[in-house]
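To whoever picks this up:

The nightly regression suite flagged AraC family transcriptional regulator as changed. Nothing in the input moved, so I suspect the structure step. Input below, exactly as stored in the fixture:
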Amino acid sequence: MIEARWATYIADDLRRAGHALDGLLREVGISRAEIASPDGRISYAAFMRLIERAALLLAEPAYGLKLGVSHDVRDNGLLGFIAANSPTLGDALANVERYIAVTNEGTDAALEEAGPVSALRFRDANPTLRTLRQNSERVSALFVKGARELTRSKATPVRVEFIHSRPNERIDYEGILGCSVRFQAEWDAVIFSEETLRLPVIGADNRLLRTLEAACRRIIGPRPRKEDLAHSVRQYVVERLAKGAPAFDDVARHFNMSAKTLERRLGERNAGYRELVDGARCDLAKYYLANTNLRLNQIAYTLGYTEPGPLVRAFRRWTDETPMQYRHKHR
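Regenerated output under the current build:
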């Protein structure tokens, strides 16, 4: 389930464009009564169908992006007010991850630290919905605009990533989001530098934040927060890569399970340990090549290789190009 708030904004856009709502709402599985109040709840899958249909009816391939940048942080209801009263931008993103289930039970989110950057990664809990792009683009645009709004600065992400492929339509992703964009990633993500995440949220009220957090905890209830094991393993690997990829048995012991159990549980999430290590190394290598002046041997050592050769071969496997070709293209 998801709050009806964004469905009401979409319905307003369609109404202003002269589209009749009754037939469309029936088609996607939403009733008028369900979107009568922004605080109501609707099916997450129905909302996904609605935003995709809206983009087609409005003939706007960038509808999700433009919808995200057209609204303020506080238009997100309780979660928006939580972000607006967090001490720093990094705290705001951490609180979004912590309390996202209050307004949206259809999305998994994870805040991941990786050296000089942190990424708020998110994706649909239902894998069959992950090829739909309008909502992930809306969320990413909302985070980008929200960072500037909260800090009253030109805070800009290092990069935005999408699970989906780049569409055939001409969309100015870089112009709208103000940063480089990567497609066909494992998660949707908005990635900020640590310096940007330390920016203060202007006008934050710590007493109000405590009140809002208490409200969120009452809504979520005593249920334990669902952890994404694949993300946790990847984070464990990232923190130790400089000394080489941890042995799988050591990882299993860290998570208090046998190697066989860890392998099975990762498999349940369509993840494998080697793929997680490769993904972490690939993402970090791309970041260092595009955003730092580190030499290739320094990058190799940072990623747990003893010399540059294995990194070059792995990078070719990941991207079909050499590290230096990638650096030249993205600098």
